[in-house]
Structure formats: C-alpha cells, structure tokens
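SEVERITY: medium
COMPONENT: batch folding queue
REPORTER: lab tech (J.R.)

DESCRIPTION
The queue accepted two submissions in a row. Attaching both inputs and their returned structure tokens so the on-call engineer can compare them side by side.

ATTACHMENT 1
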Amino acid sequence: MKVKFQGNEVTLVGEQLKVGDTFPEFKASNNSLEEVALKDTKGVRIFLTVPSLDTPVCDLEVRTFNEKASKIEGVTVYTLSMDLPFAQARWCGAAEVENVITLSDYKDRAFGKVTGTYVKELGLLARTSFVVGSDNKITYVDYLNEITNYPNYDEILEAAKKGK
C-alpha cells in the first residue's frame, strides 16, 4: 500500500488490516523495556501508530487521546512509535501524559510489519488508528493517506464507545 509523507509516496510493509479482522499477535517494548504482547492487553483498545512523539502532529494527537479517551470507561489507548522507550518515557513525563500507554517497536519492527504500518523508506510507523474489541476483532481502522495529517478523533472515540 502506498501513502504519502509530506507529499511524497512511501510504501507500507505488510498486509493492511480491515474491520472484522482479528488483530494480530505482536511484541513491543514498554517504557521499562519489558516486552508487551497482544495477550497482555485487555478490553476495548485503541492502538495508534505515529512516526515519532517528538513531532507537533504526533504530540497533539497523543495529548488529545490522553484527555478524551480517559473519559471513556473500559477503553485503553496504546500509542506505538519507533522512538526508544527512554524517549517515550521522557516525553510522557514532559507532556504529563498518564492515560495513554506508549510502546516502542524499535527492536524488531514486529508491530509495524504485522499491522501494515511500517514505512519502508523511513523506518518509521505510519499514522494509523485501530479500535479493537475485547474479542480482538477490529471494529475501526484508518490508515491515513498523508502521514502528517491528524486522525479523525471523533470517529475513533465513537468506535471505542460502541465497542464496549
């Protein structure tokens, strides 16, 4: 699949997921360098992938979900990027983000490859959003055509509310 980054076409590696698919098994690292897998997550989940927390669009996206999704009981938000876990922890502290769990795909790019979000040319993750029910079925998915654009917050949050 081709998407754009700052107007230039880039390639996403892996199969793109769709509504109704079972969310794939993955491994990523939390801020303590511990491995996290799909089986370690429960309930309704929002999985966001972003290129880097240290960019203005990603920063605002995660802060927005930190505020808005925390008001939806039973929904957990995970944000994945290629940022090192140390950088993610520093950013979360500086941004006062406490309601979003950051995970890093820096080790194997496993999350990016199994979700079709790994950008071949950049070595980063594309901007995507997945809502996954407690049965691990995808109820919402959006691969943004332009990685530097903002996601549709309202659509994602509404899908998460319906998934409860």
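ATTACHMENT 2
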Amino acid sequence: MPPAPAAREKVLDAFESILVEHGERTATLDAVAESAGVSKGGLLYHFGSKQALVEGLCERLTARIGSDVETMRAAPEGPAAFYVRTSLYTGSPLDRTIIATSRLAQGSYRSAVRVLRSMRQRWFEVIVESVEDAAVARAVMLLGDGLYYNAALNGDWIHDVTGDTGTSVTDPARVDLDELLGVVADLIRSRTPADR
C-alpha cells in the first residue's frame, strides 16, 4: 500500500490530537482544519465528512495494531511479557491513536467500538497462542488493562504538578514491571496441561 499523502496524515494527526486533548465534541471539521493548517476545503478533499475522519482514524489504528501484533509475535520475551511491558502509557503514536479512538467510542461511533474490540481480540489471540491457556491469557490482558488504567490515574502529569514520583513501596500506584513479569511467568508455569 502506498504511503498516505502528507496533507491527509496532517489532518488525521490534528483530529487525533483534538480528540486526545479535548474530546470528541470539540473535534469539529473547522477545528480540525484549523489545527492541521489547511482550509476546510482541503480537509474535505481528503475526508468528505466527520464520519470519513472517524473511518480514517479507525484505519490508522488497525494499521498500528497490525504492526504491534507483528512485534508482539516476534518479541524475544514472548507475547505475554511484551503485552504487559507495553501496557504502560508512554504517549507513543499507538497510545495516542487508542485514546483518540476511545474518545470516539464514548461518543457512540460504532466503527470506533468495533476497531477497539478487534484490537483486543487480536492481542488476546496472540497471547492465547503463546501461553496455550485462555484463562492465563485473560489474566495477562486484565493485568495490562490495570497498568494502563493505573497510568491514566497516576500519570506523568501528577509528577509534573506535585513533584511526587509515587515510588513509595506502599504506594499501590508503584509499578515494578520486572516484579509483575515474574508473577506472569509464575502463572504461566503453574498451569499444567492437566489444569487446562
């Protein structure tokens, strides 16, 4: 597939940023055009409607998930450990596209809901294939969900505002990934074929 034109990507970047920073209601065609530095006509050339922008963002997420799944399958540490390790929000392009698409799903865009469900299903299938146990795969997915949620509640913005690093051993927001990955490895090892 040939690369998307730069102006089209610029419009999608602007749409994504507005969704992440301000939510779905403020992501009007006028606001997206202004943020992208293009005329409304230029925006409409690439995306004929807000629904077309939504579909464009869903396609972007599908492509980014495809790349993530390939990386996950090839990860030397294995897909389960890769999933847990990458469940911390880092502001990566994939993170931002997931957040933006989530905002659309909250705004009742069914295509956004579908692509988010597909994303989770694809990750789940790779983990199940690797650990050969659906219950363990679900536990790994839920652990990743918890890490993502924890990052949302205790993100870098808290440190920026308060200077608090959240590193106290008794702080439930403290994340020691190596410790959690050890728990995941123990869980995978503890499930014998007779348990499945």
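NOTES FROM REPORTER
The first helix runs from residue 6 to 22.
No errors were logged for either attachment.
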